[in-house]
Amino acid sequence: MDKLLLAVKVLITLLVLVLFVQNIEVIEVRFLNWSVQLPLALLLLAIYLLGMVSGRSLFGLLRRLHRQSHPRSRY
Asked: Mean pLDDT over all residues of the chain?
């Protein structure tokens, strides 16, 4: 099972590397009055990381709200 998990991790890493290598062209991103030029791969990485952080925060908040609405009894 450990070898299978390692193989899946290596495969995902290779797919991510291919994604980055194929998307190195520079694009312009505009938000309100701000404008920045950066490689598409870097933008994808930033969006992925922001999604991880916001998803973890959302699930933490939902878990906390669920615990508050359903307190466990001690008996």
From this structure: 87
